[in-house]
Amino acid sequence: MTTPLEKARKDPESMKARILDCARRIFGQYGFHGTTTRMIAQAVGIDISTLHYHWGGKKDLYESVVVDINKDLRQKLIEVEKAIHGLPLSERLDISIDLTTDYLFEHPEISNLILFRYFGKTRSNGNIDSIIPEFAADIARSMGLAQDKKNVAPETMMKVLAVMNSIHNFISGEGFFQDMVKVERERYIALVKETLKFIHIPAFTQSDAK
Hints:
Layout: H1 4-10, H2 15-34, H3 37-44, H4 48-55, H5 58-84, H6 89-106, H7 108-119, H8 131-142, H9 154-172, H10 174-181, H11 185-209
Helix pairs in contact: 1-2, 2-3, 2-5, 2-7, 3-4, 5-6, 5-8, 6-11, 7-9, 8-9, 9-11
């Protein structure tokens, strides 16, 4: 049976897709507990019964949003891996930081939802959370830091998580950090990428050279 999420992704102009798009944005702003289905329905311009008809309850819609962002993030990581394949580690890191950071700044709800879900108290039982460790293992393999994603050393996994966490925090905390450094958004994004490269490229390449 085709799921509501599969239908929404297949037809981006459908009501299911419109609801999903608004739900991503609002859950990303307020988290699971701070969001109501009424807020989402109002943003779409529909009554709440229409939302429930297409997606069921809030938990069903939220879990679909989480799966949706994970699918999008997986596709982006595949694209990044194709772009960096075969390059020296320093170049792989440089390009990966640029492409990933630009993508997440275009879709800040992804970083917000990841931080809300995995560091807050909005998790629920299910196996979709296994995707995040899989992402980290895929990154380790594509960086040449592990032979395959099933055999990633704990030390390597922690280094990859350090990169992922720093990117997500700069994006999720944009309003707070941008005000602190007192720059326009375009300059802030450039500074984030510059800072990430300043921290992570020497750390990875020095370790790689030993």
